[in-house]
Give the backbone structure.
Amino acid sequence: MRGRAHRAAGRYGEAERELRLALDGAAGAERVAVLNELGMTLKYAGRPAEAASAYREALALGGPHAADLLHNLGGAAHAAGDHATALRHAREGLDLRVRSEGEDSIAVALDRAALAAILIDLGQPAEAASILTAVLAAYRRAGEHHETAVTLHNLGAALYAMGDRDRARIALREALETKEAVLGPDHPELAVTLYNLARVDDAAHLLERCVSVLAGKVADTHPVLAAARRAIAMSGP
């Protein structure tokens, strides 16, 4: 699927165009797959409400991917700041996944990591850190480098929320280095880690880099882009 390759490379506009073309005439399992990919593209582009609409349409079509779609619906709600809805979808998807795949699958680890990220924003960073530490070990064993980086980022956020700035810095720096190695130095997925590391280190140059990897690739309303620009403006000349 060409749209998926564009999305993975951070070319969200190109991905959306390809996927909307692919939707024309797509039916059944093919339509579910394209809608799911479109939803991921829209979420990364900073348009979570549109992403959720794509996921809901795919879920209504049925099929074996309900756990994936619930996971992604939770992610879209989380990105939109609707943490209660995010938690509901995340728990429902996790329960379904455990029933179908067992406790030890990598997909279950992915669901648990997503749940932990929501718990951080619900003010439960200690529980989130405990989950993420276990998930991180599973990813390292499996050689899942991208997911290792995402989990390190979320662990850093949890540690920062707990007041452990030093360990948060270590986790975020490793997350950034791993993302750079896997995705390259200019991929938009680096932005959220750059932003959080800038908060830990009070580093204006990281905010500038955060803006540079997002500008022109995502909506101006993208929460990380908007937050970085506000932080730069508040820091003054």
Summary: The chain has a mean pLDDT of 95. The chain is about 80% helix and 0% strand. The chain has three domains: 1-81, 103-184, 187-237. The two ends are 45 Å apart (CA to CA).
